[in-house]
Amino acid sequence: MLKLAAFADEISPNIDEQIAVCKANDITHFELRGVNKVNVLDFDAALRDEIRQKTRASGIGIACIGSPIGKVKISESWSAHFERFRIAVELAEFFSAGLIRIFSYYPPDKGDDMRKYREEVLRRMQAKLDYIRSKPLVLVHENEKEIYGEKAAECLDLLQSLHHPQFRCAFDFANFVQAGEHPLNNWSMLRPYVAHIHVKDCRFNSPKMVPAGEGEGQIEPIIVDAYQNGYRGFLTLEPHLLVAGHSHGETGPEMFKVATDALKAICRRNNIPLGSA
To answer: In this structure, what DSSP letter does residue 143 have?
Structure first.
């Protein structure tokens, strides 16, 4: 069966409300990105302890550290950013998460061709992989508008060039649509490398996010194909139904139920079992 996870900070900044809404919607795991409007990489020791205690007590697991690693300009300090990556690894171990979400950098100037910086992107990715080589962790690269791995060809280039079992793809339907590509075409290219799926949907030439299946993300056929071909990982809800920001999204408790119900309906129509809380 597939497992439901959520960027629960889209529900509320409050950890208790995040847990309550996830439990009410049969979501068993968090992709941990923020609590109390604090990014996961900036949690102090007290907040880390509180989150771990409350999620464990409620039976909520941490599927992935939803870090912003790699979501910076390639011209920014590598050493400083690598220290942030070390924090992400520490958090993954603290919360017993097997995955860390990462990105592949923005160009120094908006509109610049990121492909010019391919070698530096690969160098940085390899350094991260070298750092985790003895740890039971997988880095999942999310395709994101305007980064090196915005489009499927560059995502595939990263995955094939690094050729590493601890480097895989976090497939995001809406981000490909926003990049002007058809997700189903990209799925056929990237499927062997997909270890994680983010569920948000949208339409071409529109900034507005919609519930799964209502946009042009081709979510239903891709999830069906994923399940039929052995995918048994997470479907992480990242709906962005109220706010779709650069580093966060907002959906709220009521609309989060709408988003979850839409995804559940897709799975139900296709006899895809989901884990329940």
So the answer is: P
DSSP letter for 212, please.
Answer: T
Give me the architecture of the 3-269 domain, per CATH: Alpha-Beta Barrel (3.20)
**Where do runs of H (alpha helix) occur along the chain?**
15-24, 45-58, 78-94, 118-132, 152-162, 173-178, 183-190, 219-228, 252-269
Rounded to two decimals, the pTM is 0.96
Q: How many whole angstroms separate alpha carbon 214 and alpha carbon 261?
A: 12
User: Which tokens belong to 21?
Assistant: 């809404």
| Dihedral angle computed from the Cα positions of residues 26, 260, 11 and 70, in that order, rounded to the nearest 10 degrees | 100
Q: What is the pLDDT of residues 145-164, one digit of tens each?
A: 999 999 999 999 999 999 99
pLDDT in tens, 31-76: 999 999 999 999 999 999 999 999 999 999 999 999 999 999 999 9
Please, is 13 exposed, middle or buried when counting C-beta atoms within 10 Å of its C-beta (0-12, 13-18, 19+)?
Answer: middle
